[in-house]
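2024-03-11 09:14:02 INFO receiving multi-entity request
2024-03-11 09:14:02 INFO entity count = two
2024-03-11 09:14:03 INFO echoing inputs for audit
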Amino acid sequence: MARIACLWMPDLSLAALVRTRPELGDAAVAIAEGRAPQSVLRAVSSRGRTAGVRPGMTAAQARAVWDAIVVVPYDPETLRAAAETLADVAATFGPRVEVDGDGTVFLDCEGSAALCASERELATVLAARAARHGLAARVGVGGSKLAARLAAREGGGVHVVAAAAEAAFLAALPIALLTPAAETAEALASWGIGRIGQLAALPAGAAAHRLGPDGARLLRQARGGGDDTLLVPRAAPDTVVEAIALEYGVDRLEPLLFVVRRLLDQAVARLALRGLACAELAVTLELDGGATLTRRIVPGAPTAETKTLFVLVRAHLEQHPPGAAIVGLRLAALTTRPRPTQLDLYRPNGPSAVALASTLARLAALCGPERVGRPLRVDSHRPETTAVAAFTAPPPASGAPDTAAVQPRIALRAFRPPADLEVFESGGRLAYVRGRGFGGRVVRLAGPWRVCGEWWTSDPYDREYYDVELTDGGLYRIYRAGLRESGDGGGRRRWLADGMYD
Amino acid sequence: MTDGTAPYVELHCRSAFSFLRGASLPEDLVGRAATLGYDTLAIGDRDGVYGAPRAFAAARAAGIRALVGADVTLAEGRVYLLVAERRGYRNLCRLLTTGKLRAPKGECRLGWDDLEAHAAGLIAFAAGGPDGILGDVDAAAAPTALDRLRACFDDGRLFVEITRHRERGAERRAHRLVALAGAMRLPLVATNDVRHATPADRPLLDVLTCIAAKTTLDAAGQRLACNAERHLKPPAEMAAAFADVPEAVRNTRRIAERCAFTLADLGYRFPRYPVPAGETPDGHLRALTMAGARARYGALTPRIRRQLDHELAVIARLDLPGYFLIVWEIVEFCRRRGILVQGRGSAANSAVCYALGITAVDPIGMELLFERFLSEERGEWPDIDLDLPSGDRRETVIQHVYERYGSRGAAMTANVITYRGRSAIREVGKTLGFGPQQVDRLARLLSPFEFRDAQDDVALQLRGAGLDPAAPRVRLLVDLVRRMRGLPRHLGQHSGGLIMAAGRLDDVVPLEPASMPGRVVVQWDKDDCADLGLIKIDLLGLGMMAVLEDAIPLVREHDGREIDLAHLPADDPEVYGLLQRADTIGVFQVESRAQMATLPRLRPCRFYDLVVEVAIIRPGPIVGQMVHPYLRRRAGREPVTYPHPALEPILRRTLGVPLFQEQLLRIAMTVAGFSGGEAEELRRAMGFKRSVERMAQIEQRLRAGMAARGIRGETAETIIRGITSFALYGFPESHSASFALLAYASAYLKAHHPAAFFCALLNNWPMGFYHPATLVKDAERRDVRVLPIDVTRSGWRCTIEDGALRLGLRYVAGLREETARRLERERAAAPFATLADLVRRAGLREDERLRLARAGACAAFGTARRDVLWQLAALERDPDGLFTRARAAARPPATAPLPPMSAIEETLADYASTGLTAGPHLLHHLRPRLAGLGVLSSRELRAAPDGHWVRVAGHVIVRQRPGTAKGMLFLTLEDETGTANAVITPPTFQRHRRILQTAPVLVVEGPLQRVDGVTHVQGRRFHAVTIAGVAPPAHDFH
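2024-03-11 09:21:47 INFO inference complete, emitting structure
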């Protein structure tokens, strides 16, 4: 006789969320689906429900009811990761595991006596393992998937339904537990049929005729019939995916890394359940505004260490700032079997690829990512603003060098930081300029060119630039900084040399 | 310049009417220009002349000239066009109209051919830069573009525009432009391509740039201006900046002198009405007026004749007969088509309008002042608003006007949507990088009554949204939001204002497509149109007009009475009884909770009382604290006094309390010596969106005027408070009188022909204040028998059936009108024999069958609701077999093996499928349970003693927290016996916020308070009543 164990989470989407963000475990939290402002709550935590928030409300309605409610966007990836974790837990007891569409996991536990003393003990162990992975699953055992599922749902924590007691167990339960199609559910509700027992009491032929195939299935299940014990074996995916959706945009690295670390911990724990390692890590960042960025990070060799992966991700993020706040993060670890490496007899031992990648990443982290890489122009009017792009090895030289005539261009040798100047005026015009190592009377002058901006920040700029040719023969770019930049409470604006033209 | 004029004239300014591409209002640009010593300024917005009227008005006030221009978009870039003469203005308007009407809303699509066809009378500036037609100037395309432009703008009307904004890169472009102009022998012109009035406005421009680019300040980068140089600069500074090209400066003055056109020379003419051969407009109007007056008044008394003669003489002197004839023609069109129409607004002050059938209020009987409508002193066009039944019938009238005056001869006025508090907070908050939740929360917390926002209130609201008011970015947010208020956001369509012109309207103002298909709007709002003398006729949709129009034939058919709205019995006791009892659910304008709370205290007993009632529950009288003094005086509990003896003649009719706009104008004229023109300015400020600043200026003049007449201290303050509180929300007496007429008519119908009245109301819903479920129960309380929806009897609309109201199929949620109409046709051909017969002949979709069955609409086939569902389910699976059987015999089907519906289940099924019920009220089912808890019905509540602790329960039909009530929450609960009101104080509301905002059925406990016949429970405790089902929603206001 078939025996099926079922692992079921009362609200998988909430459980999945709390698994990635344990700090929300006791909070009034809701998961909203759809685009604001039409987003609708699909799940609400018990604390949120106590405060009066209900699924089906819009996010705005929920906040009107309880303004402290945390509304998190629905993320199917987070949900899928939780369901896969349950499946991984179940798979530790046997290969015949099926993941249902709603994330419920079934395990064929027939013959499990070899592993546990009783079905109850098996269910208890499954529940404990799931809990270690952050999922407080309920476990039911029955003679069919339906019975096991309902035992898990209705039985509290761990519930085993004996074969002889199944009909009585089912009769008192609401029909909704049989997951009727919406149309069938609507028809049954309008007929006043609410319990499985009531459905079972209808004349089978007439009712099935009216309700169609879905109704016939329900009738069969209500009467304890039907063969749904066959499990569709699960094809374990070759990636371990962990994801998180944030209800706010994270625009600083530290909090983002905190989240990364947690996801990596979960991914690595799942790798351990499967006995696999990570060959490649795809990091997908969902940006505020809807855009997504995906970066692939390949460790030098397959690894199942959180620390190594973390260092690589950190370095990568530091070197490639996403440019917008992050509202979602997804890590997909491509799995592989860990391989022992064979050293090359004819080459000197260098650092392993993994170690090298880690070292470079740590270096960037130590020096600051802004000091590792190549300079990059930034979209800003502030003249000295630059950024550092990821360092990439130059491509191999190809073809003949470019010998086309190059127009001679004047180049500015920038002083960094800009050097203080003494400036003397005569008749309201610049007359004499003296800086460290240069100076002279002004022979010719162009300007002023004005730039001002970033007035909304704590570091605004407001400058007047001049190009001056001095009697020392040099051509300089100088500027007079604004009061705030000058930092002089006396109302004097500083003069600075920005650079010298070659 | 030897004559003292500045050498430089700024000829290129974009105002905020370039919608996100300019940061200063035209008034601010003009004001700044005047301060800097300019005698002329040209404002040219992007693809429009949106800001021109306001610039013109401001310039006239400042004593300078405002030239008109526009930045016009071609595929290759922008060309700036400046109007030199009237022909040029006409061409510019036509050109912009062409570009706008062929492009999607908000865009302009023009080609070289269009430019060539409309170039006469215009001067063109060609500029470089990212948007300019000359691009980066180096390219070969620049000379080609100049050649093409020169072909359009010959005779020295093309200039190469150079700007200097102290940008290093742009200077190279300026040099190239000078060289190019020299090479092509084209003159140069210097401009500053101004985007804001002062350097301090630059942050606002940056914010607007971010909004346009949908980005934040932090991410905008080089999309922002690199400095704050695009402001209006002193002429001498501009001349100095272009000292190396002096001819570019001299040309600004030459061009300014060449541009003779301003909006003073608009050339607008109202269409002429085609009078019969041999008639003059004057004579024709007189003939129509006298004929109409005889029909209205019967015999023409000397007083009536005198008034008509006076009005006709004024109309003739102002050359307005054509205008009245055109309005009359629209009214006649409505009459011919059987469309109810009634004038409102100041037209109700005119006996000529009354005689012509334009208005329905007799101004002579009402002693309304004609000069409020039309005065020779003001010399402006009258404003006639016509109320029409909302929906298709109003659209018919609008399309008639389009047809009669041509698609380019008439257009709707625009409605310039400006940044208000909430929209400004949302947009500025986003650009400053605040999170969406913070912005949302702050915007929601903002008081809807913005004019009351004091600085400290803002700080409080910021804290409420979780923001620190002292944080620099938050302070920036507050500052920017304040500066952004009132800036144009986009162009909408006015609800009904229609402008017409003799000839082509697009010779006068550019036209644009409206969002609604088949509609075009002008680029100016109604105030701008009025300022420039464009005549507007408002065609406004009113749901109650549609109700009256529908009810009259129902009364004729079923009650055998002919209702003439113009001749209803004037002092019908039943009507006033209904009003005094506040039995006014469904009655126009007096059905709100606040109106119902006032009616028993005001106790209207004549028509003028109703005029007062309509006007008194408005923010103006409420904020001005006029309501309670008036009610106390009316009840004799307070003596009738006047703030000043001179005000007695003005305020006598309203017991010394100013309630109407007209009274305030007369007060201003009497106590502050305002001239007619100044009073008119005050009136316009009252009805004007931008009035807060205007009112502040007027307030100063009021104080000065009163002080000059010895009126100071508390008296002056009382008068000022009365006037300023009306500034934004005042209601004119004539307007109120027109509304009161509709209120009276609807009350009359409710009192005497309730079945027809509710039938028409239900057929025109959504409208009014209440859900249909409440209307149905109110009808039943007036002894109207309401019959349920029945497929063998009901039509799409509700009908009267043997004196009872039969609910229509339109209330079956999800049933298509075409299905219902087919059902009606089939039933008219032959009654439905069986359910299967119905399904087959009416072509019901599966979902529609079920919806009808669940609504109980198939009960006539002799089976219970669930039996029908059981049958229908079988029918769905086996249609052929059942049809065969149906044709064979119409025998009653076997009973279904399903549990029968309980009574409450049937009620809930009604609510779920139709939103209303003709059966027992939901509370009827709950009554035994509630009675056991000591809950009184609303009827029992009326007998409970004042001050007693009571419990009442009901379905919450109104949930209201008006801004004028200092946080009080008002609830109206409906049960099977009527309605009960509850009042909840702010602290109690905060404690029970969740249940009060969400519970559909509520028990309210607290002491009963009864004042002047108005009863309400002071809610202290609340319990939600749980029901497994759907109750109709409340009418919520927060």
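2024-03-11 09:21:48 INFO post-check: Residues 733-752 of chain B form the longest helix (20 residues).
2024-03-11 09:21:48 INFO post-check: Chain B has 45 helices and 24 strands.
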